Amino acid sequence: MGKMKTHSSLSKRVKRTASGKLKRAQAFAYHKAVKKSAKRKRNLRGTTLVSASDVKRIKQMVSYLK
To answer: Hey, CA dihedral for 54, 58, 17, 20, is it positive or negative?
Structure first.
């Protein structure tokens, strides 16, 4: 049986933390940003962990991610 292919677009969007969890960029940060407050845009700049319900599916898609 051959190797699994990595989902290349997802591998560009997700990184692995030192403890093995998956982190991603926050959504809703830039589109229609004029109406959002400075505090809201500042808090959306950072990263967050992938939700627990999605971890199993995403780990399978990017199984070789370092």
So the answer is: positive
